[in-house]
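Open question from group meeting: does this chain pack into something compact, or does most of it stay loose? Before anyone orders reagents, we agreed to write out a predicted structure and look at it together. Recording both the input and the output here so the notebook holds the full record.
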Amino acid sequence: MSDQDHKIPRTVPIQSATFSNPINAEIRRAAATGIYDIRGGGAKRRVPHFDDLLFLGASVSRYPLEGYRERCDTSVTLGTRFAKNPIQLDIPITIAGMSFGALSAQAKEALGRGASLAGTSTTTGDGGMTPEERGHSTKLVYQYLPSRYGMNPDDLRKADAIEVVVGQGAKPGGGGMLLGQKISDRVAEMRTLPKGIDQRSACRHPDWTGPDDLEIKILELREITGWRVPIYVKVGATRPYYDTALAV
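Structure tokens returned:
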């Protein structure tokens, strides 16, 4: 590129990754009509794909794998310190919790089957555990949520692990809502709430406010499950430095 090219002023604004032309058009439409969708806005950047998984090859500090003497092992074991039955995963990729209500019973069953075939775990999410999900998941993690929707001690004991939810990437510290049009008879019965009414999930747990209380709650969960299963704490990335320090 010549020096003359550098002197040409930019006449076209740089396209924003966050506020793209379609996003701006939707904002203008909603402002003009007063009608907007209650829905997720999507990611503000490109979402990682399976093709983005990085496999480290040979280098000066690492010899290539010797096929006859060692193998590429992707297995992960969780809960070896306190759980009598640690959870064994064939791959370090799990299916995150999605609520029954947002997903149908058939979708829950499909996720359980797929995760089992892949040798990993799936997670219940808000709304409780369904027989379809438990029956088709070899490794099922039970989410312990602020809303307590579908919370059942018997189902808690059926899980292979427990996940205490503090926050998540979709709504860290902000709670959530399941639209009334998704509240069927079965969903309403499991959540003990009216059918057809928007159901809001709380953003914080009612019985602990910090790491000291949370430690007591985890001990209670260990006792109710007989110290059999691992217990995780799921934290949305908000203040990673301080959250990690408190967790430690």
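Observations to bring back to the group:
Residues 105-118 form the longest helix (14 residues).
Residues 2 and 8 are 11 Å apart (CA to CA).
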